[in-house]
UniProtKB/TrEMBL annotation, chains A, B, C, D:
Keyword Electron transport: no
Keyword Acetylation annotated: yes
Stored InterPro entries: Beta-lactam/transpept-like, Glutaminase
Residues binding substrate, per UniProt: S66, N116, E160, N167, Y191, Y243, V261
Catalytic reactions of this protein: L-glutamine + H2O = L-glutamate + NH4(+)
Similarity field: Belongs to the glutaminase family.
Gene Ontology MF terms: glutaminase activity
Subunit record text: Homotetramer.
Protein name: Glutaminase
Source organism per UniProt: Crenobacter luteus
Amino acid sequence: MTTPDYRAILDTIAAEVAPLLPEGRVADYIPSLAAVPKHKFGMAVHTLDGRRYAVGDAAERFSIQSISKLFALTLAFRQQGDALWRRVGREPSGSPFNSLVQLEHEHGKPRNPFINAGALVVTDVLCRHFVQADVALLQFVRRLSGIADLNFDHEVAASEAATGHRNAAMAHFMKSFGNLEAPVDEVLSSYFHQCAIAMSCEELARAMLFLANHGVNPHDGQRLLTVSEAKRINAVLLTCGTYDAAGDYAYRVGLPAKSGVGGGIVAVVPGELAVCVWSPGLDANGNSLAGGYALERFTTLTGRSVF
Amino acid sequence: MTTPDYRAILDTIAAEVAPLLPEGRVADYIPSLAAVPKHKFGMAVHTLDGRRYAVGDAAERFSIQSISKLFALTLAFRQQGDALWRRVGREPSGSPFNSLVQLEHEHGKPRNPFINAGALVVTDVLCRHFVQADVALLQFVRRLSGIADLNFDHEVAASEAATGHRNAAMAHFMKSFGNLEAPVDEVLSSYFHQCAIAMSCEELARAMLFLANHGVNPHDGQRLLTVSEAKRINAVLLTCGTYDAAGDYAYRVGLPAKSGVGGGIVAVVPGELAVCVWSPGLDANGNSLAGGYALERFTTLTGRSVF
Amino acid sequence: MTTPDYRAILDTIAAEVAPLLPEGRVADYIPSLAAVPKHKFGMAVHTLDGRRYAVGDAAERFSIQSISKLFALTLAFRQQGDALWRRVGREPSGSPFNSLVQLEHEHGKPRNPFINAGALVVTDVLCRHFVQADVALLQFVRRLSGIADLNFDHEVAASEAATGHRNAAMAHFMKSFGNLEAPVDEVLSSYFHQCAIAMSCEELARAMLFLANHGVNPHDGQRLLTVSEAKRINAVLLTCGTYDAAGDYAYRVGLPAKSGVGGGIVAVVPGELAVCVWSPGLDANGNSLAGGYALERFTTLTGRSVF
Amino acid sequence: MTTPDYRAILDTIAAEVAPLLPEGRVADYIPSLAAVPKHKFGMAVHTLDGRRYAVGDAAERFSIQSISKLFALTLAFRQQGDALWRRVGREPSGSPFNSLVQLEHEHGKPRNPFINAGALVVTDVLCRHFVQADVALLQFVRRLSGIADLNFDHEVAASEAATGHRNAAMAHFMKSFGNLEAPVDEVLSSYFHQCAIAMSCEELARAMLFLANHGVNPHDGQRLLTVSEAKRINAVLLTCGTYDAAGDYAYRVGLPAKSGVGGGIVAVVPGELAVCVWSPGLDANGNSLAGGYALERFTTLTGRSVF
């Protein structure tokens, strides 16, 4: 397979998505997210052989939100391995990311680690293994990215906590089923902080390379996951990483990917590269509207996809 | 990547699955399926460069059941392209393959073409394009496999019709939402015949090669789907092909796959090969119990997976 | 308690509801129902001591639709007694009258005999006891009312059958759970005919007197139900008789009542009288809009209610 | 109607229910409830003309639990009248008393004031009108019963709070929909205290007389509700007062009634009397098993029922 001209491709995509930027709907449930201008667009590609490409606002930090669920899953998976799946499933949910219906039907076991309920269980696992789970996660993301100055946006975390009644409902609900060990308040606080890490497209692309690299962190050469484990995380990403649009993403994009309501989406081409796109306007499923189109074009123009 | 020793790998797998054969539960809702002995196991691998491997009962025909949904989808997709998705979704269902709940919540539009309701819509599309939809599908499968003497098992089709009240319920239900054009009886009859095609592992592996081959039928060199379309069918297989265990299959097996209650499972390694495994004992999700384990071992031993 | 001046009360109500008549929405899923003028309004009161009052279009026949479910239940209950409740519940449904969701969650046992699924089970019971269940029911309603020339509106019955895919879906669905004995087509045909009986307010009030009279048919003096059985039918009417508005009817009207999409509503004051109101415009729950208001005023002005 | 011999009837019932006492299952989610001996049974009848009858453990106090929901509803209804129904429905739920599914489907508006979610909304209303809602309710129940020394069982309230994660989940969930005004912790604390009021059968029968008496408190002659309002509360009791068994209670018992997991059930015969029965063993719906049978026998032996 020939190497694509990533520079030209990113430029093409940036031009193509421009008309889409006004169409999405910026998340507005907390002021810090609502204040992000809709016209922002950035995209970064980092390859395993060390090349880096970026376009637009790829250096600007935004709230990674649910993309943190992927880092939290990786950290918890390293602690517990397949035992983790006794407490959280790995099936697509077939319903919105914050539904309590499924949780009631399945007795407090969330369908997968990328819906909110599942991420709360993963956070609970981290609370058990680390004195300060949110700090441990932040340090893990610093390690994955090789970037020391990553931090929480404390204003975002505080806003999430103040409005997070649905997440509190889910946490208490799972607690009532016995599927939460730490105190509800501790889990929620840690969860809200994780979601409030601020990163740029370039930083996220760097932090995702270990998944493209079959589990080895390219920044320090250390193995974080076995080859098999890395593949499995990719599998969960592909089937569950984009809320109730996972089938649509597999169909249109064809890469393991994780999105967040901050407008970021990360994806990997196994064995080759990591890519991150950011645009704050969301579609009806809560995924970045322009970001999804950008990734679709990226796999079409590069001929890359897992299928 | 080195070429695996498929012969040795199939022998290893056949030995490993032997203890599992008694554990599954053979489908018993119709006599013809219930009569199949539980100890049957066959597996076949056909590569794009023409090598063929088989083990066990790989030459014995069985009822392909829901594997036919993949062939029907391919045929309907060739007729309608992306317009097809206006009538059937491509998201994992998050519920059993024959649930009416989702259908009610989503106003008669099935979640994907591989749950029964979705396959009925696909069949309805075929009923519109062909005078005899079931015969058209049979001829298409003959063409895909290059095997002329494939046929319906009419006894199975008759039994399905006699006991198919849940499928009839779904068809009438979708008709009430306006999402079925042909008469209910015609759609059901065609659907029951499609499911009743009898094929062996070797024949199914042959018939699946076009998907591994990016849309070109290797038996006659004709393009059936564009490269992009073939990838997209693979994507739908990966996210929706194994009922409510698609996430589990992606995690454990990592290949686009389609299963049937007859105990068969087909899968492809894009660009490389097609594989079919058969063992009639099913797990709780309705997938072949030994078959699922065999595919998991296959991807582990060969190092093949899309991730 | 003083005897109300029913004549004056009916006149008052007829004047009060006039402005409401244009507001409802006439059922339009079949032409015969859609053709009924919206301004129709009739009301009839028949007391156990033989007085009869009527206002407006009380002598005009309309399609009784789901009111027939009450007569069918009474007839089936006479055949089977409490054994009937093994196949159909007697709890309010908490959902629309034609939902399949509940049926799936509760394995094919309908919540009560007044949602469509429950009425199909009741009809199945009649199909088992009578050679022609619909004719048997018609004769029973003739007997209840003492009116010999009641008949099916065959045009309505045919239209119902042609558009009745949701009812067919429910029948097949229950058949798949083993909760339907007769052939689906026979049950459906009988059901559609029952719904298509045509009666006037005066005729329905006459036909309901046996329930006000603790089970004795006042027209021939024969006991149809024991005192206890009559009370129990009234209880099921109060809790389940008006679709998902039973709580609202108990609150506003406070009488056992049964409605139909033809715009009729029947109710009884136990020990005293039967009342029927008709107006074809329906509210969001499928009950006659003006009819519901008329009954609410009736219990307020007469001081009658079971509470 | 002749006056029944209530003394003899209560003795008969006490003898009849004895064999049932071991069958129920005592609520065990908190130690104070689990410790109540299963063989307890008491029943009290208070008539509007001043007669009082009791049998068994009718003088022993128990935790009234959800019976408090009736008193809270009455108090909130006095404050808000029909405006209350904008925030809570009055339809039977068709599902367990503590389900979150309905709440999600209906956007945070509980189906009725007698499921837990609805009672939390009612409590929220009280929190808005009173500085200390739980104390206000306690004083209201003292007034209804004319008994000054009624109190909370603080141990029960503390246990409820410690294990009340499902109620916390519901409160946060409704808060997320904007249907809770007071802080979640305040509403929960007040709710848990209300449920923890301890009363005997005799005291509860006394406290219910105002509903039999069309809204006038017989202990002080003051009108608490209009005649119409009292009827309406009775209507909500009949259709929603016994969890997902309201249809069954209407059918078997035929009286407005409210039950609690402490094993108590209160009921009224409008215009005549109030009755309370207590036995801690519960049936599958969470209603007192022996208590339900006792009420069924009571209406059969007395010939009283609203139908």
